[in-house]
Amino acid sequence: MRYLVSVIDDENSPDNTDRRPAISEFNERLMAEGHWVFAGGLAGTDAATVVDNRGEQAVFSDGPFVESKEFLAGVWVWEVPDLDMALKLASEASKVCDRKIEVRPFL
Amino acid sequence: MNDVEEAITRAHREEWARVVAALTRRFGDLDVAEEAAAEAFATAVERWPADGVPPNPGAWLTTTATHKAIDRIRRENKRHDKHKEAQSMHHDDPPESLGAIDDDRLRLIFTCCHPALAVEARVALTLRLVGGLTVAEIARAFLLSEGAVGQRITRAKAKIKAARIPYRVPSAEDLPARVTGVLTVLYLVFNEGYLATGPDTDPVRQDLTSEAIRLTRLIRALLPDDGEVAGLLALMLLIEARRPARVSASGELVALDEQDRGAWDRALIAEGHQLVRERLATGQAPGRYQILAAINAVHTSARDIRDTDWSQVVALYDQLVRLDPSPIVALNRAIAVAELDGPEVALAAVDRLDGALAGYHAYHVTRADLLRRLGRSRESREAYDKAIELAGNTAETAYLIRRRDQLR
């Protein structure tokens, strides 16, 4: 079972600690235990571009598709047997990243 | 009720959760299990009057439900073969340590009480799938529309399936946290049984209270050192012990001060007191259920209402207020204060809760009683009117009407 694991950042609580070493270590464990499918950190939402080609021609616009104080800072894709395992790992991920985590199953 | 109707009612009470749990385990799908169980009971209603009650109703129901489920799965597989396997619920074999006390119903209840579900959804799902209540009964119990309850249950089942919430008893390390959530739900089920709502139900539904007790016993066997599990079991036993004295022959609720204490169940009281003593002996700080159990231990130790150690009761409520400063706890504390410091002091405390509890029948019951004791008949009558309007339990309504009509 695959889950999208989103790291939720909050612009109201900036944090300058470099968490990359801890995250790397956590990733290595995910790989060793066979849960790691994909991981990636994201650039800030000010680097986002929205594309809408549902009409006559493609429209490109600057910025994220919703303005929000909370935004996606990075994602994982995990392969685990069930939600209990996903929630257990997500609890660790939340500590490692010092962020809220959303766990959502793929169809 | 004739013999067959009685057999069906009894089978529903005793076998519903077992049938749902067994089918969930076999087919890995709560929807299939619930629907097949409901169909099996409907078939029983149709067939038992003509064919007679089978010698083993539980086995008959499980077999019938299994056939219904297989039929449904065959029908659905024809429609979308590919999705079926991918969507079925995941379950492991239970951890070996569970041994003899393992129970499919326990597995079912941990799934229904999973922390990834909203609390309201857990309650509705547990009452439907474990308690066997209908959507209409749950709606009445929680003052919601049937549509809202139905949607809550449907959404919860959809999430269990889509997010793959497992069908199993949690691992040892996750158990304590998961148990807290289960206890909340069991206590709500117990309370619904103890003060059943709705004009068509018995005022006390022993099926719900005894199911809540039975499941709490199971969890206690699993977690013998958990103080709150012991506390909740003791609390339920000490309340259940008073059940025989709680409704009069004419179907009226009997308040604690008027109950025939000789009718109380001594064995349940002894067991409840023993649990409370065991918890006290550990010297650990008690949680909410242990304090409530201790309060009920004081009540059940007294020969009559005057013999009750009210200062002890108030001290325990003070302890509870520190853990749970909710208006309902404050209301119950005020009831004990009335016995210790008199109705005037208590009424002042109760009146301060007006904003929070104006829609809660017990608030008006308490006010009505305190006003009556203070000789303020007109205000008391108004409070009884309000309480009667809000009370959902038939025996309680009868009691309140009598008390109101006795006012001069």
TrEMBL record, chain A:
It comes from the Bacteria. InterPro entries: Dimeric_a/b-barrel, YCII. SUPFAM superfamilies: Dimeric alpha+beta barrel (SSF54909). Residues 1-98 form the YCII-related domain. Belongs to the YciI family. This is YCII-related domain-containing protein. It comes from Lentzea flava.
UniProtKB/TrEMBL annotation, chain B:
Residues 178-278 form the DUF6596 domain. Belongs to the sigma-70 factor family. ECF subfamily. It comes from the Bacteria. Residues 18-78 form the RNA polymerase sigma-70 region domain. Residues 78-97 are annotated as: Disordered. Gene3D superfamilies: 1.10.1740.10, Tetratricopeptide repeat domain (1.25.40.10), Winged helix-like DNA-binding domain superfamily/Winged helix DNA-binding domain (1.10.10.10). Residues 109-160 form the RNA polymerase sigma factor 70 region 4 type domain. The keyword Repeat does not apply. InterPro entries: DUF6596, RNA_pol_sigma-70_dom, RNA_pol_sigma70_r2, RNA_pol_sigma70_r4_t2, RNA_pol_sigma_r2, RNA_pol_sigma_r3/r4-like, TPR-like_helical_dom_sf, WH-like_DNA-bd_sf. The keyword Transcription applies. This is RNA polymerase subunit sigma-24. Coiled coil: none annotated. It comes from Lentzea flava. Keywords: Sigma factor, Transcription, Transcription regulation. Residues 83-94 have a biased composition (Basic and acidic residues). It holds the Pfam family DUF6596.
